[in-house]
Fold:
Amino acid sequence: MPHRIALDGETDFAGWRNHARALILANVPPEDVSFVTEDDAPALFEDTPPLSATSESQPEFRVPRRFVELAEQAALHRDRDRFDLLYRILWCLRGEPQLLDLASDPDITRLHAMTKAVRRDIHKMHAFVRFRAVATQEGEHYVAWYEPDHHIVEAATPFFARRFANLVWTILTPERSAHWDGADLIFGPGATRADAPGEDELETLWLSYYASIFNPARPKPRAMRAEMPKRFWHNLPEAQLIAPLLAGAEERTQEMIAKAPTKPVARRGAKHPDPAAAEQRVEAADNLVQLKREALECRACPLWAPATQTVFGEGPKSAPVLLVGEQPGDQEDLAGRPFVGPAGKILDRALADAGLDRSRAYVTNAVKHFKFEPRGKRRLHKKPNVGEIRACAPWLEGELSLVSPKIVVMLGASAAQAMLGRSAPVMKQRGRIFDLPGGRHGLVTVHPSYLLRLQGDDERDEAYKEFVQDLKLAVRYQAEHA
Ligand code: URA
Structure:
């Protein structure tokens, strides 16, 4: 008998999970099940009453955590068939636990594309929502109108509650609204654009802020359009300034050159480290350029102060392999680029020997500032501690979610600590691919500077060969999952 399951709204993942579990335990195949939500066409026939999931005689069915995480994200996608797709995958997972790794499976490809689109949509909402102030009897109330692509309002708005905790605000969207009263985040029905206020003081302020941060010496219309796709422009007050600003850019550049400072600008920073700020900065960044720009200002731990600069990751956004090192060294700190010193030279050679040109990989570090101990004129490398690795984790997570590599290679213990959230014995764990949290895959190997420390030539040659072997595994894995 076909089962038509009515879910309690577009984001009723818990409802789907309960029904799906009961259906699986009752052995109902996917072709006999369809899930509908309130958005779907009116029912042509009665909804099926829920099956009981609690019969004692039913065998236990363990669902991989990774699937649950992916499914929870994919459930927010606008695709009408998403819940049917998830049930189909769940059904197949019973007999095929490795299914999630099968890049050739069309359902799995679709699942990953959906989760990526949802994550991106959440990032976009964080970056492009603009509040306008409305005076009420109780005081100032901030209201924004926004049109997300997917059902992300519940998932995306806790970010604003953290960021604007002291304000009272409402975000209106066509499907849902979110309201923060300073203590609780409450969700309600959708609204229309007309419900959101128009021009006001805050907007004027925002426009002059935007005009002042716009650097006329570097107008990059293409980059601006990429960061702020055209469809967002109608909601953004600053968009109307783009054309006049571009037009006046040349003139203002000349003025700026004439007024160019003769002394370097002093580096400013918060007196106290603020780890939460890193997370917020990452959430607001929508692409690697923006993420790096935000990271340059990071003060989440005290390492920024003695270092020359933030050394952010580099490489193509589409890189299939992402390599994580420990932290920049002396040369990296001065150059502002990862792995350009002696360890970087070995890494480049080993990657080439493993069949991967470095320019095709994304290379970054667990910690983005150089930690050192001054010794005369020299700066001696100091291993970052767990707190520093944790403080820097939002940046690495931001890079991982924007690059979406097929495989993450952890170079040494600090990288493994950053990726796994715990210490891992590198020599024991090296050389095999395993699941990482968040549906990723990874491989641990030694840090290239370990090879530099080995004394004997034979020992170093042997260790180098093993290092290349590990990298080859990663190269093969990404080729097989391309
Ligand atoms: N060691 C690292 O871990 N990273 C670098 O960028 C350089 C040396």
About this structure: Residues 457-480 form the longest helix (24 residues).
